[in-house]
Amino acid sequence: MSNFYARNAWWLFTGAVFMFGSSFGQTYFIALFAGGIREEFGLSNGQWGGLYTVATLASAICLIRYGRLADTMTVTRLATLVLVLYAVAATTMALAPNVVVLCIAIFGLRFCGQGMMTHISMTAMARWFRANRAKAIAVAVLGFPVSEALWPPVGVVVLDDIGWRATWLVIAAMLLAIFLPALTLLTRKGRTPQGEGNDEEAPGMLGRQWTRGEVVRHWTFWVVLAGLLAPPFIGTCVFFHQVHIAAVRDYDLSVMALAFTIYAGASVTSSLVCGPIVDRVGPTRVLPFLLLPLSVAIAILAIPGGVVIWFLMVAGIGVSHGLVITLLGAIWPTLYGTRWIGSIKAVATSAMVMSTAAGPGITGAIIDLGIPFPNQALVLSAYCLAVSALYVTAAPRITAMVEAPPRPVPA
């Protein structure tokens, strides 16, 4: 196993850098600026959540269309294009004179950061690896918890020192001066899955390559997606409303930011443990257990208490995140093959982005009705348990199709 990591360190590190760079478009980071933005533009929790929802939905729609570029453009060219647009979005965020421009800036950050940077990383891992795909993804996604551990504490300090607008100018400069040249260099070295069967594209269920149209018409996609949408929806809601949670529970926001280090450690540990297990037993057999950690974690938030409640919940979400993101990268190529994986993953990623768009808007509106987010936690926990029960029935059927010999697509 150690030889695998040593031999493939270049490509694994490349995937991790993409994930690390996605941080500036992730909810947990943008949410740090909620207080200053809401105060300057006079937005309520519901209005801020609604604006965020509109911007994120727009990014999800664009991801469906432009995510397929991962099938037709080289990683280097696509990464360069995305990073330049990413820096433009950060600059626009810093200079936004009104709510309309602010919404456009958030759209750009969400599309380039949460959307395309993550999409490029996971698509590359799916193509570059086969037999050890989940282990590769488990390492690549380490860039995400590292960014979660680093940027919230740093962001709070910089934000307090120079203000939210100047902070986004610094981010734009980092994207152009550090991430662009680094990823341009790293992505010039491609890889084929040699020593993992052969160099041919790996097939999916029933021994065939599925097109995007076939995938969205088949029941397996929607059943699997029902569970995979829960973690981004719930995680986004929690981190987006962290300022609100701090106010409701009388927590210190700077103390809450320290929990992201625990989150990162839990996510890293969960991902590294999960990767080899998924490779050994297959991603479909893990589905019934996928949402159980998240169900427990979000239920903890409903318990009244001190800031330790926040730390326990964030740690539980970290465990869930490590499991989900490792499975997420492995399950789509396992089910549908790698030939059209960029196009297929664009739809799946877009749906997940839409879930993160819906979360802040829905929960923000409920908060405006007088129901604090911690009071909404048990409903979210119950959804996770319901989908887990669905997976107990569906997972064996899906596994049977993955292991079945080639035949035509079932109705």
UniProtKB/TrEMBL annotation:
**Entry-linked InterPro entries:** MFS, MFS_dom, MFS_trans_sf, Proton-linked_MCT
What are the protein's GO molecular function terms? Answer: transmembrane transporter activity
Database matches in Pfam families: MFS_1
Which PROSITE patterns is this protein grouped with? MFS
Residues covered by the Major facilitator superfamily (MFS) profile domain: 9-400
Please, which domain of life does this record's source organism belong to? Bacteria
* UniProt entry keywords in alphabetical sequence: Membrane, Transmembrane, Transmembrane helix
Q: Which residues cross the membrane?
A: 49-67, 95-113, 134-154, 166-186, 219-241, 253-274, 286-303, 309-332, 344-367, 373-392
Q: Which Gene3D superfamilies match?
A: MFS general substrate transporter like domains
Q: Indicate whether Transit peptide appears among the record's keywords.
A: no
Q: Does the keyword Transmembrane helix apply?
A: yes
The record's section on SUPFAM superfamilies has: MFS general substrate transporter
Name of this chain's protein: MFS transporter
